[in-house]
Amino acid sequence: MTAKTPASPIDMMKEIIRKRMESIQNRIAVISGKGGVGKSFISSAIALILSKRGKRVAILDADIHGPSIPKIMGIRGSMLYVNPEGELIPVVSPGKVAVVSIELLLTDPDLPVIWRGPLKTRAIYEFLSRVLWGELDYLVIDLPPGTGDEPLTIAQAIPSLSGAVIVTAPSDLSRVVVRKAAMFCRELGVKILGIVENMSEFTCPVCGTTHKLFGSGVGMEMAKELGVEFLGSVPLDPRISEAIDRGELHKIIDDENIPAVRALNEIVSRIEAQLEQSRSS
Ligand SMILES: Nc1ncnc2c1ncn2[C@@H]1O[C@H](COP(=O)(O)OP(=O)(O)O)[C@@H](O)[C@H]1O
Ligand SMILES: [Mg+2]
């Protein structure tokens, strides 16, 4: 008889996280090969639209060094509630999305998080093992940008991801970055739900002319190359950045007069259809 190796603290926490997440039907990771492409905005928009459609939704801000979800969701300065059992209760945002972010544990959100290396991994696992999610239809996870060790470790802390959405900018350089993001998904063993191209074009509010500021077509071409769905392009729109700056994305997310909002609604429908399909197959 061989002696059983005792489970490591990380494995034990992983098991707790798995149990706690059993009450969540779909877990969607949003990833990008690099920062600044609008990953956090797209994650928040997906969560808000799902919530508008009557789904029970939470968003996890897993970007430890650049947490921006509390700001986008209009709850900057709020704190996670810790119940007597030491469990963390998400903050519910306007637009009815339950938000979990390390920033919501800090007394001063402007302090940078200085966790490093193995300690950081442990801290993230410990953090996640304490969250009381409750019954949810969707958890949207805003992963840290890039495809290195850190986003991989964090993604691995979340059990059985239902799928990943890759966000890219339309520039030519993005091709390599998207390929890397796809490899990252393969390494994780997670299905790619599709590619979103953000900041695809800009329509001048004065003259009405549309400009492709950063090139175009990368999202669609890469989707074809990788054999995954192209979920849609989201135009650059100052109404979006202004709403984000005010923490009021929820106020414009059902304004069908905004082309970016229409695009996002179609993207969410495609994601829902894909998940529905994988459940029934
Ligand atoms: N389609 C868009 N239209 C207008 N502004 C956008 C759009 N997408 C992103 N932004 C702006 O770009 C900035 C970076 O977006 P963010 O989602 O934080 O990127 P990431 O998470 O990839 O680093 C934000 O300040 C946001 O307001
Ligand atoms: Mg971000």
Distance N to C terminus = 41 Å
- Give the helix proportion (percent range): 25-40%
Tally of structural domains: 1
- Rg value: 19 Å
- CATH architecture annotation name: 3-Layer(aba) Sandwich
How many individual helices?
Answer: 10
CATH topology: Rossmann fold
Poorly predicted regions are none
Given the C-alpha coordinates, what overall shape results? globular
Class in CATH? Alpha Beta
Binned strand content: 15-25%
Order of secondary-structure elements: HEHEHEEEEHEHEHEEHEHHH
Explain what the structure shows.
By secondary structure, the chain is an alpha/beta fold. The protein has a single domain (9-280), classed as 3-Layer(aba) Sandwich (Rossmann fold), CATH 3.40.50.300. Helices cover 39% and strands 20% of the residues. The protein contains ten helices and eleven strands. The chain has helices at residues 9-20, 39-52, 69-72, 117-129, 149-156, 174-188, 218-226, 238-245, 249-252, 259-280, and strands spanning 24-31, 57-61, 81-82, 88-89, 91-92, 98-101, 136-142, 163-168, 192-203, 210-211, 230-236. Strands 1, 2, 5, 6, 7, 8, 9, 10 and 11 form a nine-stranded mixed β-sheet that branches. A two-stranded antiparallel sheet has the order 3-4. Helix 1 (9-20) packs parallel to helix 4 (117-129), helix 2 crosses helix 10 (259-280) and helix 6 packs parallel to helix 7 (218-226). The radius of gyration is 19 Å and the shape is globular. The mean pLDDT is 91. The site of adenosine-5'-diphosphate (ADP) has 19 residues, from helix 2, strand 9, strand 11 and helix 8.
